[in-house]
């Protein structure tokens, strides 16, 4: 990069002219030098350049009012200098600033004058900036025409920087129109040119643009990686990144991270307002926020943000953007429960406008118009709009094809074709399956399933109406716990990720120690949050390698494995009501139970009761908790409770019922009960073979009220077991011993993170053992017992997925887990765990050993509640 001094800059015309390219190589350095030029009473030409540099800096990174003030002065000084090309160049910069400030007509007038005033090479640069303004305004045809005229002249002049900018812009316009291959070709050509320049800001922008291209081609991990790289480059330059925030919001939404996208957009809006920045960017950020809020099921926020975006875009004469904002606004109003013929007409008008503008979002608008028309019973109108939307199912990026298949499914439902509905849903979910498996991080795989929630619901509704319980079971399984169908991608060696995780443990341990001393820890907490962001970022960048379980769910295979003695109860939720699918004795039967919302409320009451019973002296609460258990059984099992037989029962609940203590339900209290995220997961666990050798590993973490008494006593029972305690119970050592073990027992404090389930942890001697750590195991223990609070808590994400400690273990080779879903009394846990291991030593499976351990406990409220709080997951 150039190291020209201030004295050199003020010495000659060439040095001052060099400030213009410097503003996109080292923006802050260019600003300082331009301000120095003005302090030395420069000649008109130099004054024009210096004011233009300051105006560009303020336009892109600061206050638009100051930008316009400096650019108008630059225009006036150029006129005094008598240079037509200098005046044309400044008019182009001023025109862009006026457009960004929302003064569209004035901006285009200035750009038009710049084109007329400029000649040759300068005129080509002005054409580029007018093309950029056309792109900002959403006039893509005009943008491509101006770039077409500019590129040959810039190439002929040997202007590497501006040619690269023009190619980058052309690629970005192609992306807006859905032409990904053309965009990638232009980005590649531009990147070759940027490589021979020192334009660091432009290079960062090129990386950001490549991230957008990766996203448009369906590669979400690559898009996140490139956008993060661009952010790092911008940070080194000290420049704001509002456009980056807009693009990141789009990628985050596609990854199912709508709440994060909304937070990013709102933060960027506040920052932009604080500096008086570009109103065009504010409008785009408001649109991003509205989309994110709509996806996050917050229609009120989506409506407010979208309405403001519509007003801003209309005032800025940005028809392309206004149409997209109106689409989000109509969708938010529909989500809020509004239904009217006018809303159908508005959605259809937006759809037609998007077609006129060549926008890839047009099918989404037609789908919305069709959906609203169906709600109103206007089947003819609905068919017309849905037929257009359905055309997108054959080509384009995954989410666009899913829009088409959703439209096709709604068409089939309106026509009364169950077969057509199920076929469209199957094809749409297949598209999403392929997309999900490009994602390496289990969190992204789980969250991405939200995109298929409507298709899954339509299929279940159709299956229920057709009357066949087997068909409903197949569709209940089709979109349940799919994130667990294959292990997450694990980078074989990522030194940066490992370094972040080591630092995270150290900081978290120091913060915990400082809290216990009663001292505040704000600095440590900030660093911990920073490291969490870094770890999560690295894991989200991983691209998927596994292809999941290609075998379709086979009801016959399930029934064969269940035999005559075992019952599997899968709870499907259709239109808010629990449908009980009872599998066993060679058949599937359906029973209707209660409302899901009522069951969720009752489950929360039960959890509150168990928390009270974990403390001595709460005996009087026992009848209340038992009564809640009876009500919960009526809501969840209904008449099926009378048909469970006498043998073991496997419960497959929806994600929203993951905290139910199943052993509390009267019909399950004396039974062998296990829980599985899906019937497919249970089959995989049942067929998992134990590792050769069957090593036992016992781990005792620090700070336990009982001192981890059960581990000491179990060490005597398992003579050859590996015992890790005190300083030996470090995360690296524990992971090394857990890998491939036959049986592991971990007594350690557990914490569940609702704000970041992948950072839920077990406390070891050197800090937290988090979910991300477990995912690095080659093979998790065949059986694992987690004898601490909250280890069986999960975050419900996506369509019906769970994130937590237990779900991290199941895809990695664990066939059975015992974990706890509520706070428990540490002292009461010890006899329960000892009795559990007695059963295992006698050759019992985990669920049966846990049942017998509960029966062996004293019959008081404290010990009974402790037994109910523990659940067996898996099959053995």
Explain what the structure shows.
With 876 residues, the chain is an alpha/beta fold. It is built from 40 helices and 16 strands. A hairpin with a 2-residue loop joins strand 2 (577-584) and strand 3. It is globular. The termini are far apart. 58% of the residues are buried.
Which class best fits the helix and strand makeup? Answer: alpha/beta
**What is the number of beta strands?**
16
- Anisotropy-based shape: globular
Which value, in Å, is the CA radius of gyration? 31 Å
> What percentage of amino acids are in beta strands?
5-15%
Q: Kindly state the mean pLDDT as a whole number?
A: 90
Unreliable stretches: 1-12
Q: Please bin the fraction of helical residues.
A: 55-70%
- Taking the alpha carbons of the first and last residues, their distance comes to 64 Å
Q: Say what oligomer this is.
A: single chain
Count of alpha/pi helices = 40
Q: What can be said about the biggest beta sheet?
A: 6 strands, mixed
Q: Give the neighbour order of strands across the main sheet.
A: 7-6-8-12-15-16
Pfam family, one: CHAT
Protein name: CHAT domain-containing protein
Organism: Streptomyces variabilis
Domain CHAT: 627-874
């Amino acid at each position: 990069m150039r190291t020209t001094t201030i004295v050199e800059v003020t010495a000659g015309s060439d040095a001052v002219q060099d400030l213009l390219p410097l503003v996109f190589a080292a923006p802050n350095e260019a600003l300082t030098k331009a301000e120095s030029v003005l302090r030395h009473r420069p000649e008109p030409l130099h004054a024009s350049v210096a004011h233009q540099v300051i105006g560009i800096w303020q336009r892109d990174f600061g206050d638009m009012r100051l930008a316009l003030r400096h650019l108008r002065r630059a225009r006036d000084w150029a006129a005094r200098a008598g240079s037509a090309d200098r005046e044309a160049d400044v008019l182009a910069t001023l025109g862009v600033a006026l457009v960004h400030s929302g003064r569209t007509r004035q901006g285009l007038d200035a750009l038009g004058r710049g084109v007329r005033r400029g000649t040759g090479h300068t005129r080509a640069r002005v054409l580029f900036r007018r093309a950029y303004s056309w792109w900002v305004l959403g006039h893509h045809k005009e943008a491509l025409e101006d770039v077409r005229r500019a590129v040959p002249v810039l190439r002929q002049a040997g202007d590497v920087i501006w040619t690269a900018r023009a190619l980058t812009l052309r690629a970005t316009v192609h992306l807006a129109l859905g032409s990904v291959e053309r965009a990638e070709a232009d980005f590649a050509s531009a990147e070759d040119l940027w490589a021979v320049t020192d334009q660091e800001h432009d290079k960062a922008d090129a990386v950001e643009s490549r991230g957008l291209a990766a996203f448009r081609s369906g590669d979400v991990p690559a898009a996140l990686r490139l956008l993060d790289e661009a952010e790092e480059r911008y940070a080194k330059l000290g420049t704001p990144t509002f456009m980056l925030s807009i693009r990141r919001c789009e990628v985050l939404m596609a990854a199912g991270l709508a709440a994060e996208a909304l937070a990013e957009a709102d933060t960027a809006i506040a920052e932009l307002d604080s500096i008086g920045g570009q109103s065009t960017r504010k409008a785009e950020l408001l649109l991003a926020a509205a989309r994110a809020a709509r996806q996050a099921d917050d229609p009120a926020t989506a409506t407010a943000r979208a309405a403001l975006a519509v007003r801003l875009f209309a005032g800025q004469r940005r028809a392309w953007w206004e149409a997209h904002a109106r689409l989000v606004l109509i969708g938010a109003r529909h989500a809020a429960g509004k239904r009217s013929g006018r809303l159908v007409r508005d959605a259809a008008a937006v759809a037609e406008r998007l077609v006129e503008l060549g926008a890839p979002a047009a099918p989404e608008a037609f789908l919305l118009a069709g959906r609203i028309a169906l709600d109103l019973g206007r089947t003819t109108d609905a068919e017309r709009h849905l037929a257009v939307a359905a055309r997108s199912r054959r080509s384009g990026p995954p989410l666009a094809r899913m829009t088409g298949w959703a439209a096709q499914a709604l068409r089939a439902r309106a026509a009364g074709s169950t077969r057509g509905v199920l076929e469209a849903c199957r094809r749409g979910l297949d598209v999403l399956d392929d997309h999900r498996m490009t994602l390496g991080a289990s969190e992204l795989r789980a969250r991405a399933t939200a995109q298929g929630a409507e298709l899954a619901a339509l299929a279940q509704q159709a299956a229920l109406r057709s009357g066949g319980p087997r068909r409903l079971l197949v569709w209940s399984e089709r979109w349940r716990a799919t994130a667990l169908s294959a292990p997450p991608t694990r980078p074989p060696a990522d030194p940066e990720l490992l370094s972040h995780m080591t630092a995270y443990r150290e900081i978290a341990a120091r913060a915990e120690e400082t809290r216990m001393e009663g001292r505040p820890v704000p600095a440590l907490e900030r660093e911990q949050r920073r490291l969490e962001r870094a770890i999560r970022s690295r894991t989200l960048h991983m691209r998927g390698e596994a292809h999941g379980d290609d075998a379709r769910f086979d009801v016959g295979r399930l029934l064969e494995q269940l035999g005559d003695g075992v019952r599997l109860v899968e709870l499907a939720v259709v239109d808010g009501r629990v449908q009980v699918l009872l599998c066993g004795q060679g058949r599937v039967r359906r029973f209707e139970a209660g409302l899901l919302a009522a069951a969720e409320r009752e489950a929360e009451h039960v959890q509150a009761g168990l928390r009270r019973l974990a403390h001595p002296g709460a005996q009087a609460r026992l009848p209340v908790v038992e009564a809640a258990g009876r009500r919960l059984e009526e809501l969840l099992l209904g008449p099926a409770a009378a048909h469970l037989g006498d043998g073991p029962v496997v419960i497959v609940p929806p994600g929203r019922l993951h905290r139910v203590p199943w052993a509390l339900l009267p019909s399950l209290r004396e039974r062998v009960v296990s829980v599985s995220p899906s019937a497919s997961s249970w089959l995989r666990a049942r067929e998992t073979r134990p590792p050769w050798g069957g090593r036992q590993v016992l781990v005792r973490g620090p700070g336990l009220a009982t001192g981890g008494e059960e581990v000491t006593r179990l060490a005597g029972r398992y003579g050859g077991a590996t015992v890790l305690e005190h300083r030996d119970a470090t995360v690296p050592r524990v992971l090394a011993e857990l890998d491939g073990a036959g049986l592991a027992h971990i007594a350690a404090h557990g914490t569940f993170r609702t704000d970041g389930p992948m950072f839920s942890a077990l406390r070891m001697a050197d800090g937290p053992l988090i979910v991300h750590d477990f995912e690095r195991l080659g093979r998790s223990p065949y059986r694992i017992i987690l004898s601490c609070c909250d280890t069986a808590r999960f975050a419900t994400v996506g369509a019906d997925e769970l994130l937590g400690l237990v779900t991290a273990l199941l895809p990695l080779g664990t066939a059975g887990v015992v974990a706890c879903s509520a706070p428990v009394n540490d002292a009461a846990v010890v006899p329960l765990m000892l009795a559990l291991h007695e059963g295992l030593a006698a050759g019992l499976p985990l669920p049966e050993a846990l049942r017998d351990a509960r029966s062996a406990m004293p019959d008081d409220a404290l010990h009974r509640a402790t037994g109910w709080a523990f659940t067996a997951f898996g099959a053995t």
